[in-house]
Amino acid sequence: MKREKQATKLVTTRREFLQGVGVTFSIGATGVIGACSMEPGVESTSIPDASANTEISPNAWVSIGADDTITIQFGGTEMGQGTMTALPLVLAEELDADWDQVQVETVTTHDPVYGNPNAFGYYGFPILYTAGSQTLRGYFPAMRQAGAQARKFLLEAAAAEWGVPLQELETEPSLVVHPASGRRISYGQIAAFAEVPGTLPEVDESEFKPHSEFRYLGTDITRVDVPAKSDGSAEYGIDVQVPGMVYASVLRTPVEGEEPMEVTDTAARAVEGVIDIVTLPYGVAVVGETVEATLWGKDALQVTWTENSPFRQVAQNSDLDDYEARARDLSFSTDNPLWQDVGDIDPAFSDADRIIEAVYRADPAYHAQMEPMNATASVSQDGKSAEIWMSTQTQSLTVMGAAEALETTMDRITLHPMYIGGGYGRRAEYRARCLDDALFVSRAIGRPVKVIWSREDDVKDGTFRPLAAQLMRAALGTDDSITALQQRVATPSVLGYFNEPRWEIAEGTDGISMNGAQTTRYDIPNIRAEHLIMDRCCRVAPWRGVGTSYTRFANESFIDELAHAQGVDPLALRIDLTRNDPDGRAVLEEVGRMAEWSRPREGRALGVALSDYGGQSVAAGVAEVSVDEETGEIHVHNYWMAIDAGFIVAPRNTEAQMEGNIIYGLSNALMERITYNNGTVDQSNFYDYQVMRMDEVPEIQVKALTNTKPPSGVGELGLATTGAAVANAVFAATGARVRELPLTADRVLAALRA
User: Fold this and answer.
1) What is the spatial distance between Cα 732 and Cα 736, in angstroms, rounded to a whole number?
2) pLDDT score, position 500
3) Beta strand pairing status for 183-186 and 175-178?
4) pLDDT tier, 706 (very low <50, low <70, confident <90, very high otherwise)
5) Together in a domain, 138 and 181
6) End of a domain among 231, 248, 283?
7) Rounded-to-integer distance, Cα 243 and Cα 226, Å
8) What pLDDT sits at residue 29?
9) Which domain holds residue 384?
């Protein structure tokens, strides 16, 4: 019989939540398994009447049925990256399970045991969070331990049943065998009689399988989400249907921070299918029987807005000029702690034979995920409980944010996490505005409400990678060696806007805005990276690769400029600078071989960039481009990438992840650009927010330098190299340096004519 765990009530005051009070809240209503700790010595609940067992759960992560079915819990979010397969596969490997007998369930109850060990323990406990290449890296050791623990439990149960020493037993897929006697017993047969002990067996890393004995890890296993996504049965947030549900579209204020003053809704109410109009603090919601009715009703609204927002004064070009001026002004600083401070740059610059400087700029960028933002909510009559269906990258923070919105406790929020049609950080919000829409409208009308943002809503009312200007400075000695490197990043705080509770705890260190500004791979004795927090000019959010898309564009373009100033080959300089970093050096040397770096090319040129991610994974990318000097158009013909991301759990899936990541990065590098004036976004859909089309995608080759180090993440890795690699190739082809993302044709022409 399946063991159920009683939910523990949680208060939702921010202080108590962040202090990490003892924590369980409901996510979903079915399929809950007992959350026994997998740590040694922790008491677990025994199954009463073991003789009648149909299923046992040796720990929180795995259940074994008497019918030989093995159910493994998945604590992340599947959004196309394959972790719904990879994480259970890690456990199945250590359990020595027959993968054909495994089924995977998404975790439907929150308990700290299910939290990502790498995800923000400063909340008081690990949270369910899928972003930043943290998922496989975070859960890998935990899944290995859970599998090895369950396997040891089964071995001990069989040893006791047969009366033989434990060391005489072995396992085969889903079987315990006793070679001396020839006896064999399935895991399901053991489950029928075994009792979970009060103290779970201790397991340490020495009992894990050696890599040489892996049956599944390191091979290509068909992903568990593929069948449902192939036959159309996979349910995304946008697909949800709830009995009694109606739809809502929200006309939001055109300028952030304003509200409706006067609403004329006669024409909207006259639209066939419109049920109600609900005024919200930030807009007006049209409720209807169909999505189409709500959209037509929204178009018929007449709303007078307040006009008192400071965002009416923003102007992108002048804002970016101001950011650049702040970055150039070495006397300007903020109260934020330094992001990186190695050695002492001041005497190095004072004693420098030469000082080289350059400024790099980046426009905001839209996530461009295929599934627009949506949420479905059913709020109770008292307005203090809610059931939610939503595609989210952070189950924990979604529940926390919903409880805050309704001014209730988290135990009264039930979340059903759905498949995600593209996240890239857009669905990692602490307070998702589409969810606020659904909650507030449902509470107002007393019915379940589904809110689907149109593509135009999704762009106009979106959250973006922020505007950024960066000053790069280097001190060169008499031998042209790089003695100091300084990076001053003028950009708003993404964390401060996007996740206020986490920002409060971070104490001024913004790991989203500044990710990638650290220089850890190169042997440079004095390094300083500074975050100059600028006024926010639009809504900002984590964007794929977080800060690396613009920070690495700056520092890797600048390394190229230093190579040119020194008169040395850009790849050779990087290889020399990584003399004390064998991983970085290895991927540089490998990508050089892949691209045939030294081979002459007619009409084309190469550019290279190096980036790590999360301090562990490292990649080197080479772009081969040609440039039409009449039009300024850049054509990327080939992109090669070598990576070291530790042990590669799923080779083909990793390759696919990198290919998609490279395309995403190239699209951003070449064309993706959000512009705004007077507080409003100029773009509205994919016709004026260009993304890379299939006929524009270059040939891509990826090589993973696999090893036995723990997996370290690939979902964000490739993008960080793309902008700089392409810009460096443009310079190699034309002698013109483009220092602003995206590398549009007009910017290339301006650089050519400078």
Assistant:
1) 8
2) 83
3) antiparallel
4) confident
5) yes
6) 231
7) 28
8) 32
9) 237-309+373-394+417-452
In a domain, 570, yes or no: yes
Helix (H) or strand (E) segment spanning residue 66: none
* Closest alpha carbon to 25 in 37, 35, 15: 35
The verdict on residue 254 lying in a domain is: yes
Which two tokens mark 699? Answer: 């040939």
Residues 74 and 187 in one domain: yes
Structural tokens at position 6: 């009683």
**Tokens linked to 178:** 């006793």
Nearest CA-CA partner of 419 in 410, 427, 408: 427
Q: Domain ends where: 190, 212, 231?
A: 231
Count of domains forming the chain: 3
Q: Which two tokens stand for residue 494?
A: 């993404």
- For residues 709 and 474, give the distance between their C-alpha atoms in angstroms, rounded to a whole number: 34
Question: pLDDT tens across 590-637, in order?
Answer: 999 999 999 999 999 999 999 998 778 999 999 999 999 999 999 999
Q: What are the pLDDT digits (tens) for 32-84?
A: 222 333 333 223 333 344 456 899 999 999 999 999 999 999 999 999 999 99
Q: What number of other Cβ atoms are within 10 A of residue 327's Cβ?
A: 25
Which residues on adjacent β-strands are paired with residue 102? 70
For residues 518 and 546, membership in a common domain is answered with yes
CB 218 within 8 A of CB 211: yes
| CB-based burial label for 210 (10 Å; 0-12, 13-18, 19+) | exposed
Q: 17 burial class (0-12, 13-18, 19+ CB within 10 angstroms)?
A: buried
Residue 521 token pair: 């791979």
CATH number at residue 645: 3.30.365.10
Domain check: are 629 and 658 in the same one? yes
pTM > 0.85: yes or no: yes
Burial class (CB in 10 A: 0-12, 13-18, 19+), 72: buried
623 and 711 share one domain: yes
